[in-house]
Every structure is written in C-alpha cells, then in structure tokens.
Amino acid sequence: MMGLTSILSFLCSFSLICVSLSEFVVVEVQLGGEVSLLCSNLSNIMSNIFWFKSAKRSNTTRIASMPTAESNATVLEDFKNGRFHMSSNTTHVFLNIKEFNISDSGLYFCGLNTINYNFDATFLQVEVSSSETPAFNLVVGILGSVIFVLVMVIIFLPVKIKSFQKAPSERQHRESLESNVRYYAALTFQPKPETQSISVYKTDSDLCFWS
After folding, report:
1. Are 175 and 161 in contact (CB under 8 A)?
2. Which letter does DSSP use for residue 60 in this model?
3. What is the pLDDT of residues 143-174, one digit of tens each?
C-alpha cells in the first residue's frame, strides 16, 4: 500500500491527476490471463476520454483514447501489441487487457487529458500462488535433493553390502584353487626314486654283494 500511495502522491504533486483512495481497488491477475477495467459515471463528460497507466517510479503513460463514445478507440504506439482494447457505451468506458504479464502491473485509471478529476482507479498486480513463492520453491528444492540422496542410498547400499560379502568368499575360493594347483603340480612333477641294481657273485668261499 505504501508503494501505491507514493504513486498517487507523485501524480498529484505534478498536477496530473488526483485519484481518491476511497475508490482505489487492487486486482490480482494471473499470468497470461485477461482482465477488464471499468471507468463509470462519465455520462456528463463523454468526450476525449483517456486510459492511463502509472507504474512505480515512472511517469504516467497514455494507453488509449476515444474522442466520443461512438468513435473508435485509438491505442497509442507503446501499447499497439494487440493486447489492449478500449471500448465504451453511453456511461462507461472499458479497457480490456489480454495475456497479462508482469510488465502490465501498475495503476490504471481513466479520465480527461488535462484537468484534475476524481476517477475510478485500479491497481493491477500479478497473482502469486503459494506454489510460486520463493520460499515454497526453496523447500521443494531441498526436499527434492533429500529424496534424491535417499533413493541413491537405497539403490547402491545393498549392492555395496553384497560386494563386501562376496569379496572374502571369492578370495578364499581363489586361495583354495591356488593350493590345489600347487598340490597337483607337486604330485605330477615329483621325481622317481633311483633304483639300485645289485649284483651277486658267488664264490666258493662266500657270497659278495655289490651295489
């Protein structure tokens, strides 16, 4: 509200236009949405009516104008993007804004071009839902990171445990195979014992053995 009050004070200080706070309304518009503004009680001055916009810390900008209630509206250059349309009947003036975006936020009012007058005014701002606030996004980001870490732990922890359990058994099996190979090699390549030939010679007196 302080920001809106400063805008109105700025306008009045330069004698552009004074808007009664009692007639001041705030409207929230969704991004990409559509909004229609109404300026009423203009039956006695239904000529040369303008729609104005004033954003914070900026000058008042003319959006569109109508010379008479029956004439076609003229949209000024900065707003010739197909999203702003001005119309009227015998007592009311309308401003329709399509595809609302952040840059469209600001104070909108209608009236004459030169004299001060109490006009209906509407402050348009972007509607921010709880799912779009920075705090909510921060919480969602933190929870998402925690969930991701937990999922990784759940996936890789059993695999790691199995690898730790499998390693000793594989080492024992490998050692057993190596032991069997060494034992088999020892049996296969063990040299045969040398045999000694014994010759017996018999003489008349005794028996003699040579080896």
Report:
1. no
2. -
3. 878 787 777 778 777 777 777 666 566 666 66
DSSP classification of residue 56: T
| Residue 186 reports pLDDT greater than 60 | no
Which residues are within 8 A (CB) of 211 and not within 5 positions of it... i.e. 6 or more apart?
A: 196, 197, 198, 199
For residue 205, being part of any structural domain is answered with: no
- How far does CA 77 lie from the centroid of its chain? 34
**Which residue, chain included where needed, has tokens 């000058």?**
59
pLDDT of residue 55: 75
Token reading at 176: 């057993």
Q: How far is CA 155 from the centre of its chain?
A: 27
Domain shared by 115 and 145, yes or no:
no
Give the range of the structural domain holding residue 42, as residue numbers without chain letter. 2-127
Terminal-residue alpha carbon distance, the chain: 127
Cβ contact 107:85 at 8 Å: no
CA distances from 75 to 53, 64, 159 (A): 13, 4, 68
For 109-151, how does the pLDDT look when each residue is reduced to its tens digit (9 = 90+)?
887 765 555 567 888 888 866 555 566 677 777 887 878 777 7
Statement to judge: residues 59 and 140 lie in one domain: no
